[in-house]
Write a structure and sequence with these properties.
This protein has 396 residues and is of the alpha+beta class. The chain contains 12 helices and 8 strands.
Length: 396
């Protein structure tokens, strides 16, 4: 049990233990070290989470879902990440699509009803958007989307960082249609698992190993017309689908790294209150330098959950921030990752030399937290977006 007061628990009457009870978290935390060491996918975690109703938390109650808000899902992801960051990050990609479906439905758009129904049935959705060298992300693609003449598309290209690779049933992708009369068009669609979708067994990374975010080759993979959810112009768009993807992706990513920050803080407190100084004969919790360091960690951490609650609440409430939305969303993800990295760094120092050994949980958190730098929006993109929001575009 944590000895640090929980800011996020005090902010809401929602009880995250409803879906993530302590005994389930204990099992997931124990397995996390094994999956990290053996570089394996946490099938056991996914099975337990499915049985707990976790995959359907963002689907509406009228189709059998949990009916949770994005703000409540954020709390759950913070809690799950405190036990197993890689499991939380992997499940994030499923929750992104169910979250986008909720964002659309809240705005009167039911284009992703099949995602909600699939999630209620226990099906797993994955996120196949990232491509090597494509810094346009949602606004462009190197994947070829070829129309089949009946409203569907075949996709040929390579996606990277495809979390949940061993487990997903449906993959949300995008590609560029240059063949239609109104081309070019960005096409967003969902693919079922098939022989035309090939995952390379190439995930051997420094951290977040359990996500098994393998490279995925699309070899003419087909999406029928009823699984093509958007055809829009390339480039920045006000389309609700684009907003939904960006909003849910950034908020849930920030939630995972906020959960890592909280766990590192808890472990630092445990180390400070249990380690004893030979010089003073008392615990390091009485050392002024350690007290300052832990206080600094706490001050940084305590700023994160309120930001997430506020921004996720605005998405839930269909608040209109206009052109500021993208700066706000990129900013909360950037701040969560940067703060989490600093907090883990300090926790390592408070933990002492023992934290340098691979079997120590802080050692794993140190490696896992580094992955945050590579998720969109990265530091450069976040700063560019904020500069444009406050200063306007660059002029001659």
């Amino acid at each position: 049990m944590s000895v640090v007061p929980s800011t996020m628990d005090a902010m809401t009457s929602f009880d995250p233990a409803r879906y993530l009870p302590d005994d389930l978290l204990a099992r997931i935390r124990e397995r996390a070290a094994v999956h990290d060491r053996e570089n394996t996918f946490p099938h056991d975690d996914l099975d337990d989470l499915r049985a707990a109703g976790y995959l359907r938390i963002l689907a509406p109650e009228d189709v059998g879902g949990g009916g949770l808000s994005l703000a409540e899902a954020s709390l759950l992801q913070q809690r799950l990440a405190g036990a197993a960051p890689a499991t939380a990050l992997a499940v994030n990609m499923h929750l992104v699509w169910t979250g986008v479906a909720k964002v659309l439905r809240d705005r009167g758009i039911d284009d992703l009803a099949f995602v909600q129904e699939g999630a209620v049935a226990g099906e797993v959705f994955a996120f196949g958007i990232s491509e090597a060298g494509n810094d346009l992300v949602l606004f462009g693609s190197d994947t070829v989307a070829e129309p089949d003449g009946a409203g569907g598309y075949t996709f040929t290209g390579t996606k990277i960082f495809t979390s949940l690779s061993p487990a997903w049933q449906h993959l949300g992708v995008h590609g560029l249609d240059t063949a239609s009369p109104d081309a070019p068009k960005m096409v967003f669609a969902f693919l079922d698992r098939s022989d035309a979708v090939v995952a390379r067994d190439d995930w051997d990374t420094l951290g977040m190993r359990g996500t098994q975010s393998r490279t995925t080759e699309l070899r003419g993979a087909h999406a029928p017309a009823d699984r093509v959810v958007r055809r829009i112009d390339p480039g920045p768009q006000p389309d609700p689908l684009i907003f939904g993807i960006f909003a849910v992706f950034e908020i849930l990513l920030a939630s995972v790294y906020t959960g890592i920050a909280r766990r590192a803080l808890d472990l630092a407190v445990e180390a400070a209150t249990s380690r004893r100084s030979k010089k003073t004969g008392t615990t390091y919790a009485n050392d002024p330098d350690i007290r300052w360091r832990v206080a600094d960690m706490a001050l940084a951490y305590e700023a994160l959950p309120p930001q997430l609650a506020s921004l996720a609440g605005d998405v839930d409430a269909v608040t209109d921030h206009g052109g500021r939305w993208f700066s706000l969303l990129a900013g909360v993800k950037y701040r969560a990752v940067a703060a989490a990295k600093d907090i883990v760094d300090d926790a390592i120092l408070v933990g002492g030399g023992a934290a340098y050994f691979t079997q120590n949980e802080l050692s794993r958190l140190y490696r896992d937290v580094l992955a945050g730098m590579f998720h969109p929006s990265d530091a450069e993109s976040a700063h560019s977006t904020a500069a444009s929001a406050w200063l306007g575009p660059v002029t001659d």
